[in-house]
Amino acid sequence: MSSRMAGSVLLRHAGRRLFSATAASPAAAARPLLAGGEGSWARMMSTSAASQAKDQAAKAADAAAAAGKGDGGEKKEVAVNSYWGIEQSQKLVREDGTEWKWSCFKPWETYTADTSIDLTKHHVPKTMLDKIAYYTVKSLRFPTDIFFQRRYGCRAMMLETVAAVPGMVGGMLLHLRSLRRFEQSGGWIRALLEEAENERMHLMTFMEVAQPRWYERALVITVQGVFFNAYFLGYLISPKFAHRVVGYLEEEAVHSYTEFLKDLEDGKIDNVPAPAIAIDYWRLPANATLKDVVTVVRADEAHHRDVNHFASDVYYQGMQLKATPAPIGYH
Fold this sequence. Notes:
- By secondary structure, the protein is mainly alpha-helical.
- It has helices at residues 3-18, 26-30, 38-67, 128-148, 152-163, 165-181, 188-206, 214-237, 239-265, 276-281, 290-316.
- It contains 11 helices and no strands.
- It starts with a helix and ends in a 15-residue tail after the last helix.
């Protein structure tokens, strides 16, 4: 058989496969495309139309992204459609009708700090456990004073990264305890998590006042890792000791913010306008200053001091926290 005849036979046998429709299904692949396969033509046309629709949608998305930048390069808000049915909440407004711009907290989570709280309270250590807690905190103050000296803006920012840890750890462990023992917590889970969130908002505020340097960020990672694990183990072993440590830490925080205020009043630190996030979170007047912010933060720390000393006293009296209603929203 000559090569021409072999090629002709091969073309006849392979022709049906070469010119058949795409293998959408075995049945569709068996029907020749040129032998009246109208369904195959329809599928090809629909596939082509879907591809064109995708291309047009992609171009429209690119155009929307380009149009989303207005004057000055600002991006316009684009609604995100969710397959899971999660709808974006409607725009919130303040009491005066202006738009609420914060997504990290809502208008109903704001409050006016109680600055009339007694700042001079101190728990005198009497038991051995209390003395260990007290002198542990005092020993931590010495390296902190050396490192930060009187740079209270950086000091506040750095210390708040640690202060937000105990409430989260305590709330988490009480949460797990509640699940294991099938019992309620008396509201203490929420109270401690509120404390952690409040401390985190202190950090978000001072981030607007002082930006951390690279070595300060490295210090945060190190200190937070050590302190989280140490406090976690301490709370597992003795909750009354853990809460007492936090109570003394908050006493030191009150002292530090008092020194911060003295430097502001003496003009050693510029009394700059309060960050916008602080004005909304603490419902401060529009013309509030850094001094006003430090005043309300100090009041928060004093409230955390009272809550943790109170929690430690509950354990010292042989009771569990669930037996005593938690001071939710106390700050």
